[in-house]
Amino acid sequence: MRYRPLGRAVTIALWRANNKPPVELVVANFSITENGKIVDLTGESHSIYNQIKRGDLEGVKIGAGTHKRLANVPFKITSKTTGESHIVVTDKNGQFSTASDWASHKKNTNAGTSSEDGIWFGISEPDDSKGALLYDTYEIEELACESNKGMKLIPAFEVVVRRNKVTIDLGTLTDEYEKEISIHTTATDKKTGEKVIVAGKKVTIVDTVTLDGLEEGRKYQLKGWQMLKEENAELLIDGKRVESDYTFVADSEKMKVEISYTFDASELGGQNLVTFEELYDLKNPEEPVKVVEHKDIDDKGQTVLITERKISIHTTATDKNGKKEMEAGKDLTIVDTVTLEGLEIGTNYKLSGWQMVKAENAKLIIDGKEVTNDYEFTADKENMEVQIEFTFDGSTLGGKQLVTFEELYDMTNPEEPKKVTEHKEINDEGQTVTIKEVPETPTPETPGTTTKTSNPPKTEDTANAILWIAILVLSAAGITGVRIWNKKKQVKRLGIEEKKEEEE
To answer: In this predicted model, what pLDDT tens digit does every residue of 431-447 receive, in sequence order?
Structure first.
């Protein structure tokens, strides 16, 4: 830096370094004497130059264990006084230097992209006869890059430049290799622990993640999201990605953690979902570093299958007493007992039913109206039994067979009920009841009353009368015969007794 003649008084100089705020250097007034006389410095011939001292730094970068030299590793050198900073990069042998005999200060000055770029601190023109660094204290910081990925970077340290044209050897800078973190995952249904989930409005996938190689005490964040396997695309529900995250502090090198995803899967029947994960090191929360990931669309461990929800229905129609036959009457009631399987717990349903005339395969109409009924309920378990009744005037239905038809609706959106199953089988005996004719009751005759008629008896009636007379005659003859036989028997017995007395 060259000062033009300013006279005896030197005021204030402003030094702006690398777009940093200006540093104000206050210089006191001074005078220069020669042999006791004050020297006038106003003339061009008497101008002077400052004598700023400069030095350099150098070092070698390797990886621990293998002693592999690490190329293209950037180091940030920052002045503790001014905040000015520049980047120096290692070469193929892992070496770096700020000296001009290594890389000219004038070549790509302070570009910081390769080991051949020159380094120069201060606002003066680069000078290869001088060192790159002004006398000062500097902070040396290794920056993360592809070459040192998976390693523990050396902590930032300070070095003091205090010798002119002297290159300070920083020695061998060694990075310890960090343990490679492995990740293994298994996605299942939270409720069953199975890899198959029945479609529903609220399903939960639990991803159990096994991590190895963690640094104890280090803070990590596990991020994950769902993918559609067949499309190899992110799963979006209502336009939003199905994702979750879990932040934790490692208490051991090997840990097992869980991350859950809860979402509406009612429309995903038949789809395979794959969980993707990324693990971040939160040593610097402002700049999380991704340390491992697991994104394999074909990984069976990460995959679950969403199956269609199939609700089965079985019905039995009877009267109130459980009988399949009933007599025609004015006030008939058919009770339809419906067994449902595969319901979604917590969902509102409506069971709608109506009566059909089997012989006509048509709806039963009474007084111009269909015989129907509805029953609404909330499923409190997957398998339920409910009843729906139909009461109507069946006095004219003697000899008919009635069949109950049913439809089950999901009422999550009452404005747009969704039919989920039905039972409409006209020949199903379980759904069928028979209406019997009411038998006619004969009018009984009053005893002792003689019914007269002006019409002569019919041939059939005459024959019946003769038959009855014959029976009476035979009966009378039989009674007479029995009497005569008893009389003869009595006379005979008396004769025997008289003979016995004469002999005596």
So the answer is: 999 999 887 666 666 55
